[in-house]
Amino acid sequence: MNKPSTIKSLSALSTTATRAYLADSFFGLMVLDNTKPTQPEYLTRIELYSIVANPIEDGNTLFVADQFFLKAYNMTDPKNPVALSQVSRMGDSRYLNDIVKSGSIIYAIESNSHLSLYDASNPANLTPVSTTAYADIRSLHISGTKLLAASLGTGLRIFDISTPASPTLLGTYNPPGTAYHAIQDGSFAYLADGAAGLQIVDLTDPAAPVLTGTYNTPGTAQQVAKKRQLCVRSRCCPRGNRRRRQSISACLSIYQTSKTFINKAEVIYCGRYYRELLGLLEMFPSFSRGLINFF
Fold it and tell me: Cα separation of 293 and 283, whole Å?
């Protein structure tokens, strides 16, 4: 595939120690060699329809949610991916919003209304397992044997996935805002709760989650990530503000100059069009600087 000259609409991304996957609504999935983070190398492009969930790399297999289909690719030769299989979503009118993997099971959100399970033990034969209706599911996160499902106005759901093919709902935390995204670190869940900011919830007893702290972000808290510090992404650029139309380079520059440390929390704000790129900064800051020069 020809190398695109730019990113038109970044919809999802994921990085590993050696590769980065950038999903673009116009160009499909771009695969970059991340061995030298400051000099990412273009490897190939996989033509796909529409990706909004971060791809999952597991060994030499890549799993991608391509709107209506879950797909698997053999990435042994990253310049020449080989399609292994695909399976259609379980609901005729539903599309795939997010995917995570534990063992041989892939958990998928379908149209923010269902939690669906797929058996990926044989990537050449992806098979559906089950689907269950859960209102408002927005994003998923796995920590050990727990699956967190941030569920907008319904709150944060905590599932036990000790038996991956049979998730059990343990409890629900009802926050004051809108649960967009959550991660777990130790016994604590960090929840991006929309206008209510960051919520820190003790999950020692997942059947009875307890709020232990909050932080009022300057904008709408939409996503959380953690490396050495906790990073909360929030959207605070008002409609029509020219900062929302800035270049990728300028957005990354804002990250460098406009971050504020609150205890161990690092709050980052930027226009929503480029907020996905901050995921690269959270994991590989030098890669992001190289990305500016790549295109």
Answer: 18
